[in-house]
Design brief:
Two copies of one chain form a homodimer. In chain A, 38% of the residues lie in helices and 16% in strands. By secondary structure, the first copy, chain A, is α/β, with parallel strands linked by helices. In chain A, the strands form four sheets. Chain A has a six-stranded parallel beta sheet, sandwiched between helices. Chain A has a three-stranded antiparallel beta sheet with strand order 9-10-11, with helices on one face. The two termini of chain A are 35 Å apart. Chains A and B meet through helix 2, helix 6, helix 7, strand 8 and helix 8 of A and helix 2, helix 6, helix 7, strand 8 and helix 8 of B.
Chain lengths: 405, 405
């Protein structure tokens, strides 16, 4: 990644020098550690010998390798370790002594059953930061339940307020219950690292997917607790301002957000319908919200249908009205803004070849994050890491033969 | 918030000692600083004299005060400052000398026009961390465009993959483009704080809403870049495993995630339909995905329709199948898990009275976050903060009369 001034001098990421032992699997935990690795932390991904993280078997595939695994685990080192064996536990504990952070997203209780819970690890290394994510967390009435993203979206109230009023609840397409939880966990880990710099003290922390979903409902909770009113599904509008919706034009969909009186009046003029400004039913935001479906929406539906996306974007851009085409994934990937912001970048993967993956959304101008290494092959860094612990080559070979690594 | 061991001894948040000058408005910036304040940072929210943050006029209201403002700005201090005046700029710069972080979410260029861009502030206080969020960021072809959450969801590709295959694109109900951006910015700020502890050097950073949305599309980008295939809208299913969907029962909706062979077989038995296990069309995940809509979905639609939510939950819990009812906001707020996890908590607000707001999703057991102060009245802490800069009472009164504060 280039610096903002265009120079390419190497600046290490903000988390340079931090070592993370990463036991996470699937999506939310690996998304957390991807963020840490993108900003310079040394993330050692520890996988089950033989099969590894389940995402190695998640599509899309090329030459037998998973693109899903590849994008999510870039910038990480890889080792295998059978944590059900005594030697595996021993090696893990030796690694803990060298690490700053241990992360897992197993079902609560799993780490304790393996004998590597926080109670054990903090006696080995009191400054360790120990982070866990799960569906429901380590306490509470649902703690032991298994969870997937759709479970969290359903229980957290998100599905009930996504979709159209006359249709069923809708799940957010990508697993936002997962990746938001992973991001909260990354934030928690870095807060703990900051705190440890100040005090020398490590700690345990956790984030639960359902808690995450509840925390991102915007005004829906206070609407209910303050007024006893429940937000329902409102499709693509904003219930408090208008016009703010998606419309179908000749060759696609466009969203428009004329969320102030000035924008509304500019929009009327841009549409060639300045007479709407003085329409008694549409004079204020309040009136436009009240009369949206009966009066305003039909006008916009008809208006948008008469244009192509390019034509509409020209009119709205000229008038300074916030708007955007609804891009599909291909259009988004190939949009000039995406490349200018380095939001899809190349990695040279040893199996997949050159692949294009999502970039680094957090732009730190002093210590830029970057995507500079492919995801590890299963056990790729076993020898280097074990040798750094002083374990001899013969022993490493023996561990391999016995399925410990 | 109680400690995990049930004791109530006061432990300060992880960010105790950090002072944040918070110029943010609306949702994404204030969501960032709410996270920082929840974990002990001293956040000084600086608002326009007279009107303040626009969210003071966002519903729901009670006794003329906004519940939206109240939940989003809890734990923050409030002062007013007219940054278009020389005295206002002077006071701001004096405050910068005492601060660790400056945060804004104005349109790019606004801070520079006011004469308080990073280039100026870093000469006043070289260690300052200067964070900005906006729709498109400070560079790139769309940099100057205004944005709302729906603009980011549309351009980032999210809307194109949310909703049903036979329906239009759907916006995520709450503004996830906003709150995820705010969370990334909080993470960026804390990474910069950590780095500053190591090196003594501050920095500038930014997060753009469209970049955020692109980064949370899960496998959609790699599916296109690796295979040339585009994810479309898949409603409530997961396209790679089955059965994984939402079904309507007698009195509501339930999601089921039988995402492995074992879970599938357990589910067949729990349904009293063990014969499905040996059905040639449904033998493997691959076959169940292929034949979901023609063969499997009708079976589940009919099965679920015969039960109430309580009955279905009993059957699925007994069998260990991941499932959840689709809760509306009222049901979520009143669910025992929500209170056990302290995900809706009370604040005593001076105007609104006792209100219930979303709690702290990041559970740090060593330095717990907490909700312990209401949002500020407009300019509530003006005198205390200005006096701490050595400004005399008479002068403060004069600033007030002249609209500088």
């Amino acid at each position: 990644m280039k610096n903002k001034d265009g120079s390419s001098k190497i600046i290490h990421g903000a988390l340079e020098g931090i070592r993370v032992l990463d036991l996470t699997i699937a999506y939310n935990g690996p998304f957390c550690t991807m963020n840490l690795a993108d900003h310079g932390a040394e993330v050692i991904k520890i996988e089950r010998p033989g099969t590894g993280d389940q995402t190695r078997e998640w599509p899309p595939f090329k030459d037998g390798a998973s693109g899903y695994y590849a994008f999510l685990n870039r910038n990480k080192k890889g080792m295998t370790l059978n944590l059900r064996t005594e030697e595996g536990k021993f090696i893990f504990k030796e690694l803990v002594k060298t690490a700053d952070v241990v992360v897992n997203n197993f079902k609560p209780g799993t780490m304790e059953k393996l004998g590597i819970g926080y109670d054990v690890l903090c006696t080995i290394h009191p400054e360790i930061i120990y982070a866990s994510s799960s569906g429901f967390g380590s306490y509470g009435p649902l703690s032991n339940r298994p969870a997937y993203d759709n479970i969290a979206q359903a229980l957290g109230g998100m599905m009930s307020i996504t979709g159209f009023p006359d249709g069923p609840p809708v799940k957010i397409g990508p697993a936002v219950g997962d990746n938001f939880t992973g991001t909260y966990m990354a934030l928690a880990i870095v807060m703990a690292l900051y705190r440890r710099e100040k005090t020398g003290i490590g700690q345990q922390l956790e984030v639960a997917m359902v808690d995450t979903v509840i925390s991102i409902l915007e005004g829906a909770v206070i609407q209910y607790t303050l007024k006893g009113e429940m937000n329902g599904r409102v499709g693509n509008i904003d219930p408090y301002t208008s016009p703010f919706d998606m419309y179908e034009c000749k060759d696609g969909y466009i969203v428009i957000a004329a969320a102030s009186q000035n924008l509304w009046e500019d929009l009327c003029r841009a549409m060639g319908k300045p007479e709407l400004i003085d329409e008694p039913d549409l004079l204020t935001t309040k009136l436009r919200v009240e009369n949206y479906f009966t009066k305003l929406k039909p006008i916009f539906v008809e208006w948008a249908a008469g244009y192509t996306l390019v034509e509409l974007q020209g009119i709205l851009k000229e008038a300074g009205i916030p708007h955007a085409p609804v891009l599909n994934i291909e259009q988004m990937v190939n949009h000039p803004n995406t490349s200018a912001r380095e939001m899809v970048v190349d990695i040279e993967d040893p199996v997949l070849g050159t692949i294009r993956v999502p970039g680094v959304p957090i732009k730190m101008f002093g210590t830029p994050g970057s995507v500079n290494a492919p995801a590890p092959l299963l056990g790729q860094h076993n020898s280097a890491i074990l040798e750094s612990l002083g374990i001899e080559k013969e022993k490493i070979q023996e561990f391999k033969e016995r399925g410990i690594i």
